[in-house]
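Hey,
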Amino acid sequence: MNLQHILLRYHTVVFIGCSRHPGKPSYDVPRAMKDHGFFVVCVNPLAEEPIMNAPTYRRIEEVPDKYLEIVDVFRPSREIPLIVRHLIHHGKVPKVFWMQEGIRSSFAKEALSPLGVEVVEDRCILKAYLSLLSRRDEVYASILKFVRVYARARGYALNPDPEKLDEIVLALAYNQRTHGYRFCPCRPLSGNFEEDKKKICPCVWHEEEIKRDGHCRCGLFWNPERLE
């Protein structure tokens, strides 16, 4: 299992057992993931208002299917079989079922793996993400956050190939460090800033290219309907 691929391929995390109280890991971890540009969804049966201004539901069956990329659980190991049965019963099967540090369940693997779900146990999703970023730098991290937020705001998808997405963000980060701007990595620079500023990601052509080709020229932003 490649955690880097998971954390680059998926950009929405549903936290079951998300706390309403800052200072608890079940609040601080979702908050930090949100700060890194992930779209965070909270599930808390006692919540009467949105937690950290994120979509908040009392039960997992209320969560729209479009959010079911990574489901991350902050509940004791003994509760995992019931949660997994509940997910399957209500047809709320995610792409990834993630159990936080100290939480393990062989039942989860046995029940979800045959359904094509990647199962991660006894790992903190925030620590795993920070480990991924530790191999890069702050410029890479800021650009990855930017493209996540931009894509979500515009209704786009990011490149579904984690290795390709990493390659594009690395190239954008290189241009940012070298030239001071995140110039599109697939368009040569002329040296004329008035002309080259059209190539600052997202470039002035990206909307037209997404409509025409299903993705922008470098393959960073995609029309999600063309991925199906």
